[in-house]
Write a structure and sequence with these properties.
Elements lengths: L3 H4 L3 H14 L41 H4 L7 E7 L3 E8 L3 H12 L4 E10 L2 E8 L5 E9 L7 E9 L9
Length: 172
Amino acid sequence: MRTAIHRRPWILPLLLVALVAFLACNGGKGPSTAGPDGGTPGQGSPGPNGNGEAPSPTPPKLPEGLLTEFPQYAGAKLVSADATDNQLKAEFRTSDPPEDIISFFKGIVEKDPWVLVTVLDPDENTTVIFFSGLQDPDISGAVAVQRISPDSDEVRIQVDFTIGVLTPTPSG
């Protein structure tokens, strides 16, 4: 029996690129709390609404498609979501134990319509679950579960989908 890796050898390198991008995002430290002038938000120069505070941001929403169909971890709060022609990404936060989150997503991608490709633990705070579509081999993805810092209860969950093969842009 051939595994998903044997049928689609491009999946693992592509997903490793997604992992590197995830880990490079803010150095794994989460979003910055500095204001636009480098100071604390809400202090310093008046914000756009004139009272020193920035207006409340609109809560992010998941783009239509795979991300809305892929099971979400209950209780996790959506922090950001983005979609391009061939990639869908969403980041969630929760304070649940990483082991529970990893178990949940491994259970999801071990069942139809997904195939578990591999699980990597690049460091003690991060686990990445790579998967692909069972019926649609052009769909692949990764779920990265990362404790924000060793002494924090906050956990980042990043879900990435890639549709088709990414074509590298020639550098000039």
